[in-house]
Design brief:
- 0% of the residues lie in helices and 41% in strands.
- By secondary structure, it is mainly β.
- Strands 1-2-3 form a three-stranded antiparallel β-sheet, with no helix packed on it.
- The chain is flat, with a radius of gyration of 21 Å.
Length: 70
């Protein structure tokens, strides 16, 4: 099921994501604008990610078969 939503009632999003070496944080900057109403909403923030070491994968999560493609 699908339908077309008119752009006059929708918005266009601009999203920027980056990692800043200076502060060691991931940053997000989002703005949503509408042609008629202008700026609708936005979000600006940052976060720190803690990388966890990967352990062995349980057998029930592994692929059932491997296929070589060229």
């Amino acid at each position: 099921m699908s339908f077309r939503f008119p752009m006059s009632l929708s918005g266009r999003a601009t999203l920027r994501e980056w990692f800043d070496d200076a502060d060691g944080r991931f940053h997000i900057d989002l703005e949503v604008h509408n042609d008629r109403f202008g700026f609708l909403f936005g979000y600006r923030g940052s976060f720190v990610c803690e990388w966890m070491p990967a352990g062995p994968v349980p057998p029930h999560l592994l692929p059932r078969r491997h296929e070589i493609r060229t």
